Structure formats: C-alpha cells, structure tokens
Amino acid sequence: MENGGYNHEIPENANEHCPGPQSESAGKLDACQGCPNQEACATAPKGPDPDLLAIVERMATVKHKILVLSGKGGVGKSTVSAQLAFALAAMDFQVGLLDIDICGPSIPKMLGLEGQDIHQSNLGWSPVYVESNLGVMSIGFMLPDPDEAVIWRGPRKNGLIKQFLKDVYWGELDFLVVDAPPGTSDEHISIVQFLQATGIDGAIIVTTPQQVSLIDVRKEVSFCKKVGVQVLGVVENMSGLCQPLSDFTFMQMAETGEHRDATSWVLQCLREKAPEVLNLVACTEVFDSSGGGAAKMCEEVGVPFLGKVPLDPQLCKAAEEGRSCFADHRCRVSAPALKGIIEKLVANKI
C-alpha cells in the first residue's frame, strides 16, 4: 500500500468492495460483513481530524520544516540536528528544534538545556530557549528522572508528537528542524502525516560511510519517496578521524603488549626537529569506505549528496557540553565541513 497506509486509504486486509474507513457507511454495508476492520470502521470518528486543523493553524507561522533522519542509531543524527539549529540561529534566522525521539531524547543535552522545564502560557507550551531566536522542545524536559526509561507503545508516542505540533507556541519561525529517531517507525509516519498538509520542505539523512549503515539509508530514502517527502540530501558523518597532530596521544608498545605513553617525547622531538609538522591535521579512515561511501549510494538512488563531516573529537566534546561547534576555533576540523553543508542547504531553500 502506497504512503505507508496511513492516509485514510483502504486497508490491505479489507474486503473487496470496501467503501473506505472515512466513508459515512464504513462498517455498515453488506460489503463490510466479515471484514476484520468492520467494528473499528463503524465506530471510528468520521471527517477531518480536528487536531490536524489545529496543527495547520499552528504551523502557518513556520516557513520551512526540515526532518533529520537516519537509518541507524549512533551515526550522529542528533549532533547534525543540534549543530544545524545552532548554525541557522547564528545566521539570524528564527529557529525551532523539535525532538521527537521519544525513547532516547538527547537534544536537551546537546543544546545545553538539561534540567530545564516546559512552561505553559495562554498561547500554549513555550519552548525552552537557548538564545532568543533558538527554541527547543523535547520530552526530555518532561521527564522527572532523566534515567527513567520511556516505555510507550506507538499510539502514546504519536499522541505526544501531535501535542507538540498543535500545542507548542513557536511564534514566527524561519526553520523548524525535527530530530527524529532512527529507522522508519511510528514516529516517522506520524510526523509526516501530521505535517503533510502544512508542507514539509524535505529530509536530511545522516549516515556513516560503512555499508551496514548505508543499507539502512537506502530504506530511509525509500520511505521518503513512498510518503512524498523530498530528500534534501545525505550527510556522510564520521568520514574518517581527523584531528591536529598535536592533539594525539602517542603510545609505545612493548613486546609484552603493554603500552607506554610516549606523547611528551614525540612532541618534544617534533618541536625541536620539525615544528611545522605540529600544525598538520592527521586523518585516517575509521570505517571502510572502499565501496564509495554515501556519495556513491546517492548517485545510485538519485538523491543529493551534501558532503562529508570528519569524526572530530572536538565536535563530540561540543555535543557533550551542549554548545555550538561554530562558536570558537576548537572544532577547526569539523566546523568548516558542517558550515559548507548548511550553507548549501540554506542557499537551496531560500
């Protein structure tokens, strides 16, 4: 069934002459007899969902809506979402960042907002603000114990996502960035269904170069095509480990297998004999990209390739500390790569 079967279409297991679940006669006709969906169709409310109308009204003040997706967890999707939001805000755009990873919300930490609470006004739920032009909403702000697992079935997750969309008062936004959980599950179907009438600009898909990640990215691309969401492009994250040579730890291995720290000796030798070497950045592959990585996959499936972001320990540290990688020069390896990708996106959207 096209579009994931959520668009009020006839269920796959319906009888041959099904009138459709939204029909006034659904579940009541002779053709409905014996259908496994008969009772659900007969008792379900008919007509447009009033919550969807509320979402359309709420989203009317949001110019651009971008989903950030990944096929697998642990590829840096939330890091990309957070730094995208930081960068857009630094460009003087009004930005909202919505975290719909209900079971694993990491956005509050990556934005430096742990321990913050949601407040309510007569206009709705107020986002938690990093800056005056960067607001954030996440279930992470609603959990009394951050270590407590969120064990929710699909309908409850979907209900919260709907509530985020219809009840959060963002005000006028240039960009709403939606950080989704990995994969293609209830949350993804819900966010597309709820936002479809408001216009989704598209999705950014984050991956690593390894084949085991790219296999699932192909599924993510397929999902986007089926539900009618444009793929804005794919970001290859952790594309080789890169960091200044002076930041490395050098170890000397003994025949016994023991390691001895030789960093001070190596750096002293370099300072004395080749000081210019200390200004170099050393890079090495972490994941096997002999198959061409994300760039080749994008060419094969016909979606844009946005670029590569190296695995930068300083970027990891920025995410852990909840700060922008663009605020200083510590992320000198990864920040230029991310900036180029984001500028490309903005140029294509405006």
TrEMBL record:
<dbReference type="GO" id="GO:0046872">
    <property type="term" value="F:metal ion binding"/>
</dbReference>
<feature type="binding site">
    <location>
        <position position="32"/>
    </location>
    <ligand>
        <name>[4Fe-4S] cluster</name>
    </ligand>
</feature>
<dbReference type="GO" id="GO:0140663">
    <property type="term" value="F:ATP-dependent FeS chaperone activity"/>
</dbReference>
<dbReference type="InterPro" id="IPR027417">
    <property type="entry name" value="P-loop_NTPase"/>
</dbReference>
<keyword id="KW-0479">Metal-binding</keyword>
<comment type="similarity">
    <text>Belongs to the Mrp/NBP35 ATP-binding proteins family. NUBP1/NBP35 subfamily.</text>
</comment>
<feature type="binding site">
    <location>
        <position position="18"/>
    </location>
    <ligand>
        <name>[4Fe-4S] cluster</name>
    </ligand>
</feature>
<dbReference type="GO" id="GO:0005524">
    <property type="term" value="F:ATP binding"/>
</dbReference>
<keyword id="KW-0411">Iron-sulfur</keyword>
<feature type="binding site">
    <location>
        <position position="35"/>
    </location>
    <ligand>
        <name>[4Fe-4S] cluster</name>
    </ligand>
</feature>
<feature type="region of interest" description="Disordered">
    <location>
        <begin position="1"/>
        <end position="27"/>
    </location>
</feature>
<dbReference type="GO" id="GO:0005829">
    <property type="term" value="C:cytosol"/>
</dbReference>
<protein>
    <recommendedName>
        <fullName>Cytosolic Fe-S cluster assembly factor NBP35</fullName>
    </recommendedName>
</protein>
<comment type="subunit">
    <text>Homodimer and homotetramer. Predominantly homodimeric.</text>
</comment>
<feature type="binding site">
    <location>
        <position position="41"/>
    </location>
    <ligand>
        <name>[4Fe-4S] cluster</name>
    </ligand>
</feature>
<dbReference type="GO" id="GO:0016226">
    <property type="term" value="P:iron-sulfur cluster assembly"/>
</dbReference>
<dbReference type="InterPro" id="IPR000808">
    <property type="entry name" value="Mrp-like_CS"/>
</dbReference>
<keyword id="KW-0963">Cytoplasm</keyword>
<keyword id="KW-0547">Nucleotide-binding</keyword>
<keyword id="KW-0067">ATP-binding</keyword>
<keyword id="KW-0408">Iron</keyword>
<dbReference type="InterPro" id="IPR028601">
    <property type="entry name" value="NUBP1/Nbp35"/>
</dbReference>
<keyword id="KW-0004">4Fe-4S</keyword>
<dbReference type="InterPro" id="IPR033756">
    <property type="entry name" value="YlxH/NBP35"/>
</dbReference>
<dbReference type="Pfam" id="PF10609">
    <property type="entry name" value="ParA"/>
</dbReference>
<dbReference type="GO" id="GO:0051539">
    <property type="term" value="F:4 iron, 4 sulfur cluster binding"/>
</dbReference>
<comment type="function">
    <text>Component of the cytosolic iron-sulfur (Fe-S) protein assembly (CIA) machinery. Required for maturation of extramitochondrial Fe-S proteins. Functions as Fe-S scaffold, mediating the de novo assembly of an Fe-S cluster and its transfer to target apoproteins. Essential for embryo development.</text>
</comment>
<dbReference type="InterPro" id="IPR019591">
    <property type="entry name" value="Mrp/NBP35_ATP-bd"/>
</dbReference>
<feature type="binding site">
    <location>
        <begin position="71"/>
        <end position="78"/>
    </location>
    <ligand>
        <name>ATP</name>
    </ligand>
</feature>
